[in-house]
């Protein structure tokens, strides 16, 4: 009995010893983890301070606006510490390799200009819709594939540039809610038509859709009443709708490098059209302008540009002559079995007996 008691006591002592050692080991490990975490926090704080100091060097004030300007540096992502500059009114971040627009962009309620051109951005976050004071959003030459409908909440947006975004081929219907948007650049993308949301923009004055894959223009294009400049070069347009003649404000129209075969005859009467370019189109008729008189070097408004406004009018006149000639020829054939007599200036016809 005594031996068993001793053995049992020994086991209990060993167990207690191991439990004490394990507890101490756990405590030591916890202290080490806490120490590492503390060091990490200190390091993180120092890194934040370094980044914050670096950002401060990029913040300038011009014309009463606080501007963040970074160019040709490596900033694939923007640090969270940027929120320490809530007074920023403009971001100009060019060629920095930026891959994402941070969702905390919504914290900058005073932003007026967001210029992120020539980066590697793939997405415009939905949070962009919270920037209600934003006037300019410039995201050209990135890799944006779609535009969120929330952009329609930016009621003060006046200028939107999305040129050169590879696979971009659609815009959300909510774009039509941008009542102040007057400048829109969608060039060098994959659009096959002008989106209805663009045609519905009430204040649009300047539109560039050159370098897309447009095959036709909307029949109701004349709804764009304030549009004065339209760039449509390097597309696949084969014809123009007649209603293009009823665009009252249009004064610049570039249609070079398309597949146009004809020019609507009514375009001859578009007196507000100051500049037009039909160069490099497979037009049906060949027309040439007479030699232009010598002009001074300071005269920039060359009305006799080879494929410009005078060319358009001459082409319309030539096309009208050809149509009249064809109709007359057809009429003569129909009357080949009739006699045509003139009497007191009246044309009388009688059938052959």
TrEMBL record:
The reply on keyword Repeat is yes
Coiled-coil region: none
GO cellular-component terms in the record?
cytoplasm
Q: What's the protein here called?
A: Leucine-rich repeat protein SHOC-2
PROSITE patterns the UniProt entry points to: LRR (PS51450)
The reply to whether Repeat figures as a keyword in the UniProt entry is yes
Q: Which UniProt keywords apply?
A: Leucine-rich repeat, Repeat
Q: Which domain of life is it from?
A: Eukaryota
Tell me the gene name.
LRRC39
């Amino acid at each position: 009995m005594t031996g068993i008691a001793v053995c049992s006591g020994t086991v209990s002592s060993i167990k207690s010893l191991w439990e004490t050692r394990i507890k101490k080991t756990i405590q030591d490990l916890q202290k080490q983890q806490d120490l590492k975490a503390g060091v990490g926090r200190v390091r993180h704080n120092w890194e934040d301070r370094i980044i914050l100091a670096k950002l401060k060097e990029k913040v300038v004030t011009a014309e009463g606006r606080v501007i963040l300007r970074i160019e040709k540096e490596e900033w694939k992502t923007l640090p969270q510490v940027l929120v320490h500059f809530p007074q920023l009114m403009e971001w100009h971040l060019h060629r920095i390799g930026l891959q994402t627009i941070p969702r905390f962009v919504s914290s900058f309620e005073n932003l007026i200009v967001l210029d992120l051109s020539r980066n590697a951005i793939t997405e415009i976050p939905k949070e962009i819709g919270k920037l209600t004071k934003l006037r300019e959003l410039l995201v050209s030459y990135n890799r944006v594939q779609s535009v969120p409908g929330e952009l329609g909440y930016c009621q003060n947006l006046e200028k939107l540039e999305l040129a050169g975004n590879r696979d971009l081929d659609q815009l959300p219907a909510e774009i039509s809610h941008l009542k102040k948007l007057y400048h829109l650049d969608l060039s060098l993308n994959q659009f096959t038509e002008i989106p209805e949301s663009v045609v519905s923009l009430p204040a649009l004055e300047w539109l560039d859709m050159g370098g897309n894959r447009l095959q036709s223009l909307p029949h109701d294009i004349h709804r764009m009443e304030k549009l004065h400049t339209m760039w449509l070069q390097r597309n696949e347009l084969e014809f123009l709708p007649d209603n293009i003649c009823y665009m009252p404000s249009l004064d610049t129209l570039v249609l070079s490098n398309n597949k146009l075969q004809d020019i609507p005859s009514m375009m001859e009467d578009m007196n507000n059209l100051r500049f037009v370019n039909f160069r490099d189109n497979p037009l049906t008729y060949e027309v040439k302008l007479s030699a232009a008189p010598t002009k001074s070097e300071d005269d920039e408004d060359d009305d006799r540009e080879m494929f410009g406004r005078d060319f358009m009018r001459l082409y319309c006149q030539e096309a009208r002559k050809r149509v009249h000639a064809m109709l007359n020829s057809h009429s003569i054939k129909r009357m080949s079995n009739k006699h045509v007599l003139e009497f007191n200036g009246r044309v009388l016809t009688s059938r052959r007996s």
